[in-house]
Amino acid sequence: MFSSFRPHRHDVLLAVVGLSGGILLWLLGLHLQTHRLFTAPWVSLVPLLVVSGLELLRRTSPRTGLVVGALALVADQFTVGNLATILMFTDLVYAAVLYGKPSAARRIPVATFLIMVAVTIGFLAWFRTPQALLIGVVTGMVSFGPALTGASVRNHRDAAETARLHAEQTALLAEMDRVQAVTAERARMARELHDVVANHLSAIAVHSTAALSIDKPATSRDALGVIRENSVAGLAEMRRLIKLLRAGGDAPEPAASPTLSSLDALVEQARTNTASSGLTCTFEDAREEREPLPAPVELAAYRIVQESLTNALKHAAPGPVGVRLGRAGQLLTIEVSSVIEERPGPRAPGSGAGLVGMRERVALLGGTIEAGPSVGGDGTRIWRVRAELPVTEGTSRT
Predict the structure, then answer these.
(1) What is the DSSP pairing of strand 331-339 with strand 368-375?
(2) Predicted TM-score (pTM) above 0.90
(3) For a disulfide at 365, which of 182, 246, 301, 396, Cβ 3.0-4.6 Å?
(4) Dihedral over Cα of 105, 107, 108, 113: its sign
(5) Is 276 domain-assigned?
């Protein structure tokens, strides 16, 4: 419990050196003044011992050291005096400003300056000789000078500490930005991997299960054809993404992003993949204006349709799978619907990552998306995905 009161080794060294120097001066008879109230030389050792002991408190209790040290200095004036006592007192003034409270660091220089002025005026009025100014100069050297030096050093230390904290905060913010950038990039790559590869792998899973469960050569041959086509396409996409990840800053020019003009081919591929499951895919582009849209909007719309078709392949019952594009003002609408009744035959498992990825893409563009069951006009239960995307980049969050 007394560890907080343990003096610093530098303070111990100052106390030992100051006391040793004062004793040496006393042994040599080098005193500062004569004809004092206490003429016995040994009396000057008392203030010397007190001030040297206070050096041990210069960091832990600087205010106490200054107050008691000032009393010891006044007492030293009634003895023959010792130079070491005065020098150690100047260090106590310096330490009180440097290590004391901020309020003390502001008040001590002002107080010592006023004391210097008052002593100068007082002795000048008392002695009425120019030599009285020397007393004011010595008073300033003993009190105001060390206080001013302590204030200057403290200001420099505070400025350095502020700069250090600012540098740490800047580094922390930079690290947070880096982590957020890495997290965002990982999320983007996860969406790309899922959207690009899941469609092919889902088709492979469904058709491989069909080939194993249905003992018909024609069915198995058709299923193996679809499996080969999707496995080759999926492997090519995987290789492209792996090259991008490994190349880093020297990455090759990426392939062109899918656009809305590629939806016909996407739906045609889905029609081939889902034919054995009894699904019929249709595509309707009801837009009156078909000019190119910003690349992020077209890519997001393409991925939403791709993921919705993949989900239909996994879960939809035999029946129509409709893909419809529309435009209402500054909003591009994408709607994909499929039957969700129970169906016989194989189906691929789902993880829910596709819906999460679609919502993330739509949120980045500032759009809205709804996905869930509803009832069609003929009473059939259908699963509908409807997304609305702003068609201008100015409304997006990217």
Answers:
(1) unpaired
(2) no
(3) 396
(4) positive
(5) yes
- How far is 72 from 29, CA to CA, in rounded Å? 20
* CATH for 361: 3.30.565.10
Which structure tokens are listed for 306? 């791709």
Closest CA to 12 of 70, 40, 54: 54
Q: Evaluate whether 223 touches 205 at the Cβ level (below 8 Å).
A: no
Domain total of the chain? 2
pLDDT in tens, 9-23: 898 999 999 999 999
29, 143: one domain: yes
Q: Are 259 and 302 in contact (CB under 8 A)?
A: yes
At a CB cut-off of 8 Å and minimum separation 6, what does 115 contact?
A: 139, 143, 144
Distance from C-alpha of 258 to C-alpha of 304, rounded to nearest angstrom: 12
Residue numbers of the domain that contains 116: 3-171
Backbone angles phi, psi at 384, to 5 degrees: -120, 130
Lowest mean pLDDT segment, chosen from 20-29, 83-92, 251-260: 251-260
Tens of pLDDT, residue by residue over 226-261, are: 676 667 666 776 776 666 666 654 544 445 578 888
In this structure, of 57-71, 113-127, 130-144, 180-194, the range with the lowest mean pLDDT score is 180-194
Regarding whether 166 and 274 lie in a shared domain, the answer is no
Last-in-domain residue among 131, 147, 171:
171
